[in-house]
Amino acid sequence: MTFTPEMAKVGDILPPLSFGPITRTKLALYAGASGDHNPIHIDTDFAKKAGLQDVFAHGMLSMAQLGRVATDWAGIDRLRGLSSRFTALTPVGATVTCEGRIAEKFEQDGAPMLRIALTATIDDGTQTLRGEALISAA
């Protein structure tokens, strides 16, 4: 779907984005690229000592993909805000699907805006993030 503010309606679904499976190599590469070297994401022994079965993906890795759902659809220049809540861990081996839906059309300071509801879900159906993007429709 091509972004056209005039055509956007509440309930419209944005093209989904999937990535994965999450591998230990991807976690190590993301740690290096992001500067987030928290051992809970890359050191199995550390994760087990913390009471977990294994390491898990950085939440910001999935949040970045949620942002891509909005910006791939509307363009980076229209993004006015992005927020999310982490709701579950993303384990090694999982594939993540990020989705968006237009939840609201409104005006902010006289400018037309869209509120996009965003979710990230792993292949077993567990929702790992939920959030929203604010998109300028001007």
From TrEMBL:
Gene Ontology cellular component list: fatty acid synthase complex
PANTHER family to which the protein is assigned, alphabetical: (3R)-HYDROXYACYL-ACP DEHYDRATASE SUBUNIT HADB, 3-HYDROXYACYL-THIOESTER DEHYDRATASE HTDX-RELATED
GO biological process: fatty acid biosynthetic process
Listed Pfam families: MaoC_dehydratas
Name of the featured protein: Acyl dehydratase
InterPro entries from the UniProt entry: Fatty_acid_synthase, HotDog_dom_sf, MaoC-like_dom
Domain MaoC-like: from-to ranges: 21-104
A GO molecular function held by the record: fatty acid synthase activity
Gene3D superfamilies listed in its UniProt record: Hotdog Thioesterase
